[in-house]
Each structure stands twice: as structure tokens, then as C-alpha cells.
Write a structure and sequence with these properties.
- It contains 5 helices and 23 strands.
- It is of the alpha+beta class.
- Among the domains are: about 110 residues, conserved putative lor/sdh protein from methanococcus maripaludis s2 fold (Beta Barrel); about 80 residues, Helix Hairpins; about 80 residues, Efflux pump adaptor protein, beta barrel domain (Elongation Factor Tu (Ef-tu), domain 3, Beta Barrel).
- The strands form 5 sheets. It has a 6-stranded antiparallel beta sheet with strand order 2-17-21-20-19-18, with no helix packed on it.
- A hairpin with a 2-residue loop joins β18 and β19.
- α2 runs antiparallel to α3.
- It is rod-shaped and about 160 Å long.
């Protein structure tokens, strides 16, 4: 009997040793929570724009040739009539010399025809020749005069061609681009230098297709420089031009704003924040907002964890996101004010899991002895004084 009990006890102990140990209990996680409340929508539509000159010209030579010199440099300020670049004028000078020679030949023919006409006219007055002969001489004189005028015009054209070998600025402004270099052979009209003319400045920005209908000519717009202090009041501008067609690459519509001429113009190429007034303005609207750290993906939907304070467990709640307001998400549906939502650590939770509310620990810094902190040299002096032996009474 005793042997049987011993065998059963050994078997039971052996089976208990071979069986799997019970899984450890899942630790209770500490989470950060927040109470859902109604807040106001603070963001508005804001676009990024660029300051550009209202008049920007791409200048090129009116004749073809090889560039031998370029005086204009990027960012250089130029005056009207200043030479920007030059072509090799040798061929045009030769053509002008040829036109000048043709003019001299035409002038000689005209003078000869005029003298001939004068002589025949005198003979006609003496009835030595017929009227038909005088008319032929008159026709020859008119043809010679026409050839002379044609040679004059040709010489003027060739003179212009020679002057066109020098590219001059037609307005005062700033060189914003250089598109050709010395040694390059260019055709007539090829852009060489781009100049932003002095004068009014525009802010150019693009709006998507669903917002362009809200942009009207003359509409007031607030603009603020990228480097400008956020506390500074924005400047005002007006819509001057709205593109009639979308950009083929970005599918956006370009809008140009006329800056107020009283305020100092920002530098060319500066970035400006554009805030259209009244473009679907939703600022101040009551909404429910959550930090993005509270959101997680559940399938194809967005969800949050709701905390049940009675049982201190969490459950999943599907929410619908309307838009973003800065770094927060605006919730359109799924939450009510007063609900408690887990705001951090959402990706390590599971439905029905027990949690605790995270309490931030306060670390106390150990204090330094007041005497040492206030006057560390006083203790040293006292120690020296105590270490010095006192004089004897007999002495």
C-alpha cells in the first residue's frame, strides 16, 4: 500500500514537472488620458507665395550672331540704356558699308538723270525735240530718284542692324537671370538676360481647383513675410489677376496680388504667407480636436481607445476625421464631450485591457548644505582657527 502511494506521488510530481507553466499575467500599463471637450477651430486657409516684379522682361538680340561680351551679371542693378551684352558686329558693319556704296551709286545716277532731264527740257522749249522724248527723260529721272531713296532706306536698315549688335536695357531694374554666355551663337530673339523692372511688386501663389472659385478680383488678402515676426500685423493686398486655366503640371490656378504701394516692397523672391480673407473661413467654429498621438489605424478606419473609469479598462472607438488644425486632428463623428480618451501609448493596448493613469514622477534635487553653498571659505577659516594651538596661560 505504501509503495503504491509512493508511486502515485512520484508520477504526479513527474507530470507536474513536464506540464507547461501558467503564462504570466499581463502587466497593467500606465497610459496618458485626456477628457474630450469642445474647442474652437483656429486655423485658416494659408498659401505660400513668392514676390515677383509686375513687369519682367526677357531681353534678346534683334539680330543673330556670336556673343563676344556680356556685361550683365546676376543680381546686378542696371539703368535704362545700359549695355548688357554685345555681338560680333563685323558682318553688319560690312553690310552697312555696302549699303553706303549703293547709296553713292544711286545718288550719281540720280544726278546724271537730273542733268539729262534739264538739258532735254531746254531743247524742248526750243522745239528741237518732241514731247515724248522729254517724257522719257522725266521717267528716267523719277526711276533714279526712287533708286536713291531705296538705297537710303537700305543704309538706314543696315545701320540699325549694326546697332542691334549691342543689347541694351530698356528699363531700370535688377538682372534676375542670365541665359547666354560669351562665345555662344544665338538667333534673333533668343533670351539672353532677364530683368525685373523697378516698380510695383506682386505676390504670386497657386490655389487648388476647389478653392479658385472663392478668389475674386479685388478681393482683400492678408500677406506676411516668412521671416517676419508672427506678432507683427500682416500687410494687406488685393487680387489683381486670376489665371483662366490650370497649370498642366500641378493642376493649380495662379493668382497674382498687388501689394500696397505705401508699404516698403519686400525683396524679390521672398516667401510670403497668403491668407485670403473670407475664403471658406471656419475660424472660431466649435469642434472636437485630438492630438495625433491618440489616433491609430484599425483596418481602413481611424480609431481611439476609450477609458472606462469604473473598470479601468479600454475599448476601441471608431472616429471620423474631418481635417487638421495645426498639429491636431478635427473629429467629425464618433466622440462626445466628456469621454476619456487615451492620448499616448495607443499601439500597445488591446480591447478590455486593464490600465492605470500615468502619474508623472517628481524628482527632488538633493539640497547642498547652506553654509557650504553660501560661504564655502568660512568653514575653512574656522577649521584653521580650531587647529591652531592656544597660547599657554603662563606665557
Amino acid at each position: 500500500m505504501n509503495k503504491t502511494l509512493i508511486v502515485l506521488a512520484s508520477t504526479t510530481a513527474l507530470l507536474a514537472a513536464c506540464s507547461r507553466p501558467a503564462p504570466p499575467e499581463e502587466p497593467i500599463r500606465a497610459v496618458k488620458v485626456l477628457t474630450v471637450g469642445v474647442n474652437t477651430f483656429s486655423s485658416g486657409y494659408e498659401f505660400a507665395g513668392e514676390v515677383k516684379a509686375r513687369l519682367e522682361s526677357r531681353l534678346g538680340f534683334r539680330v543673330a550672331g556670336k556673343i563676344i561680351k556680356r556685361q550683365a551679371e546676376l543680381g546686378q542693378r542696371v539703368k535704362a540704356g545700359q549695355v548688357l551684352a554685345q555681338l560680333d558686329p563685323q558682318d553688319y558693319k560690312l553690310a552697312a558699308d555696302a549699303a553706303r556704296a549703293q547709296l553713292q551709286a544711286a545718288a550719281t545716277n540720280r544726278d546724271l538723270a537730273a542733268a539729262d532731264y534739264k538739258r532735254y527740257k531746254e531743247l524742248k522749249e526750243q522745239n528741237f525735240i518732241s514731247g515724248a522724248e522729254l517724257e522719257r527723260r522725266d521717267t528716267t529721272l523719277k526711276a533714279a530718284q526712287a533708286q536713291f531713296e531705296q538705297a537710303q532706306s537700305q543704309l538706314a536698315v543696315q545701320g540699325n542692324q549694326t546697332s542691334y549688335a549691342s543689347l541694351v536695357a530698356d528699363v531700370a531694374g535688377v538682372v534676375t537671370a542670365v541665359e547666354a554666355e560669351p562665345g555662344q551663337v544665338v538667333s534673333a530673339g533668343t533670351p539672353v538676360v532677364r530683368i525685373a523692372a523697378d516698380g510695383p511688386r506682386d505676390v504670386v501663389f497657386s490655389v487648388p481647383e476647389d478653392k479658385v472659385a472663392g478668389i475674386k478680383l479685388g478681393m482683400a488678402v492678408k500677406v506676411r513675410g516668412w521671416a517676419q515676426d508672427t506678432q507683427t500685423a500682416p500687410a494687406m493686398a488685393k487680387v489683381r489677376e486670376v489665371s483662366a486655366s490650370a497649370d498642366p503640371a500641378t493642376r493649380t490656378f495662379q493668382v497674382k496680388l498687388a501689394l500696397d504701394g505705401k508699404a516698403p516692397s519686400p525683396p524679390l523672391g521672398a516667401t510670403m504667407y497668403v491668407l485670403p480673407v473670407g475664403l471658406g473661413d471656419v475660424q472660431g467654429m466649435p469642434v472636437i480636436k485630438l492630438p495625433t498621438s491618440a489616433l491609430r489605424q484599425e483596418g481602413q478606419a481611424s480609431a481611439v481607445w476609450l477609458l472606462d473609469k469604473a473598470s479601468m479598462t479600454v475599448k476601441s472607438q471608431i472616429v471620423q476625421i474631418a481635417t487638421a488644425d495645426g498639429n491636431e486632428a478635427v473629429i467629425a463623428a464618433g466622440l462626445q464631450p466628456g469621454m476619456v480618451v487615451v492620448s499616448a501609448g495607443v499601439h500597445v493596448l488591446s480591447p478590455g485591457q486593464k490600465v492605470t493613469i500615468y502619474q508623472q514622477k517628481v524628482v527632488l534635487t538633493p539640497e547642498t548644505p547652506a553654509q557650504t553653498a553660501i560661504n564655502p571659505g568660512a568653514n575653512d577659516a574656522a577649521a584653521v582657527k580650531l587647529a591652531t594651538p592656544a597660547p599657554s596661560a603662563g606665557k
